Target: Fucosyltransferase
Amino acid sequence: MAVQHRHNYCSVIKYFTTCMILSICALFYVSLTIENYALNYFNFSMIKYDDKLLFLNQSSLTYHMEQTEFYPHLPIQIYTKNREKFIKLRNKTKKIILLANGFFDDETWSMKSIKNKTNSGNMSELYCSFLNNQCEITNDRNRFTQADAVVYHMRNYINRSDEILKYRHPSQRFIFTSWESPRHSIDLRSYRNFFNWTMTYKFDSHIFASYYASDTYRSKDSQWFKNLPYNYEQKTVLYENINTTKKLGTVAALISNCLTPESQRTLLITELKKYVDVTVYGKCGKPCPNSIDCRTYIAERYYFFLSFENSYCEDYTTEKLFSTVALPIVPIVFGKVNYTRYIPQSAFINVQQFPSISKLSERLYQIRTNRTLYQEYFQWKKNFIWDRFLQFMSPFCDLCLRLHLDKTPNIIHNIHKWWYHEKCDPEVQN
Ligand SMILES: *[C@@H]1O[C@H](CO)[C@@H](O)[C@H](O)[C@H]1NC(C)=O
Ligand SMILES: *[C@@H]1O[C@H](CO)[C@@H](O)[C@H](O)[C@H]1NC(C)=O
Ligand SMILES: *[C@@H]1O[C@H](CO)[C@@H](O)[C@H](O)[C@H]1NC(C)=O
Ligand SMILES: *[C@@H]1O[C@H](CO)[C@@H](O)[C@H](O)[C@H]1NC(C)=O
Ligand SMILES: *[C@@H]1O[C@H](CO)[C@@H](O)[C@H](O)[C@H]1NC(C)=O
Ligand SMILES: *[C@@H]1O[C@H](CO)[C@@H](O)[C@H](O)[C@H]1NC(C)=O
Ligand SMILES: *[C@@H]1O[C@H](CO)[C@@H](O)[C@H](O)[C@H]1NC(C)=O
Ligand SMILES: *[C@@H]1O[C@H](CO)[C@@H](O)[C@H](O)[C@H]1NC(C)=O
Ligand SMILES: *[C@@H]1O[C@H](CO)[C@@H](O)[C@H](O)[C@H]1NC(C)=O
Ligand SMILES: *[C@@H]1O[C@H](CO)[C@@H](O)[C@H](O)[C@H]1NC(C)=O
Model:
């Protein structure tokens, strides 16, 4: 399972790395200065402060938190009050971020600039080159005592008897990091008072890290878009001319882990197949043609795509949703997520909003056979642009900033409770 996840993840990373070579991506960010960053980025930075489970004291913070006005409604940090303070960062000493264990055994965490065990990565690779002088990322454990942040990936081994832990000092932040759901995590009861901050996809993390980064979109009405220093031409038209004649069938899925017969996903698909044609692509289904991206292939030939998460855990959403949102197909979602945080209600079909699979199928038939109705699912995209505005590891940019700007001490007393408090539905795996 871990290996499987790693594969998915690494291919995502490779994709981004390739993209970085494209000048469009590079130009976007390299051209931003730190002052621009203050104007542009802070208002859209994705950091969230939670006062409940993480024992944060809101009143002692100078940040103003809210959700972005446009989709996706991510938790962001509005930092207008502290703009002055932010600009002063230019002259501050670098914060050291230590990657204290591997990322699925990858010591470099897929960062190209970290070539070996005693190297440093740079912030450009994370799409925040304007922070190159503010932070340094390293996996050199000999620099433990210098580190301002010590980042642990929770899917990798953590040696609790490690000598270096004896030298932990109170100003360091230990970071609990996971891009994956709690399903395969370890028991965390022995980690009481160990971590200071969290960096996960959960909306109440200190540093928010979402698979949204895999296929990002921004509203053209947003200030962010208006502030772009050049005229942006949308490369892909995602709403006009949706071909409502799809040749191959009604519903398709792309599943990389073979389905176990008893899993919720299998049961749903089996049930759905009683009423409507469903084609499963992927390792245990039909092979995709090699010549074309499988999702694109499906999107052009089917009406609906099953974006079913393999873990039914609070807030857990992956590329299963985001890669579909960018394509001319309507996602049918199933996950323990408030999807309207990411896309409007008019953009997707949620299995859970139907009393039965047969009712769901009736609706699918209705949508499929009414061209106008089908096209309505794409209307919202008119006001959005798609591009790689982020890199999957970009939360490290937020971490860098927060290390500079948030002086409030914080100890996570009960990480086990926070991570597991809403148990994942055990039936839904695969
Ligand atoms: C929060 O922090 C402020 C300033 O440090 C302090 O005055 C206040 O008592 C704290 N509140 C709680 C509930 O701990
Ligand atoms: C940074 O330092 C330089 C040289 O010491 C100084 O001239 C400049 O005003 C400083 N900038 C800020 C934003 O503090
Ligand atoms: C940062 O790393 C990238 C990727 O290795 C490299 O191309 C770039 O030159 C580096 N930039 C700096 C400022 O070190
Ligand atoms: C790691 O990379 C640095 C800089 O590229 C180089 O100086 C050093 O010799 C390398 N170390 C090893 C063990 O390869
Ligand atoms: C954990 O750290 C201790 C102390 O440094 C060391 O002796 C031990 O070999 C480490 N265990 C593993 C599995 O790396
Ligand atoms: C961000 O906030 C600053 C300060 O209030 C403001 O001048 C700027 O226009 C805002 N930028 C965006 C993109 O909203
Ligand atoms: C839509 O797709 C169908 C089936 O692939 C094709 O025959 C038709 O020409 C396409 N229509 C348009 C307007 O592209
Ligand atoms: C879901 O998210 C939307 C957008 O942020 C919000 O308006 C709505 O209240 C949320 N619904 C629930 C049930 O939390
Ligand atoms: C098709 O859908 C549109 C938009 O919802 C609706 O106004 C129209 O009545 C529907 N047509 C039929 C034949 O059901
Ligand atoms: C981080 O947590 C440790 C362990 O509970 C604590 O000793 C330390 O003061 C905390 N550091 C910060 C900066 O909050």
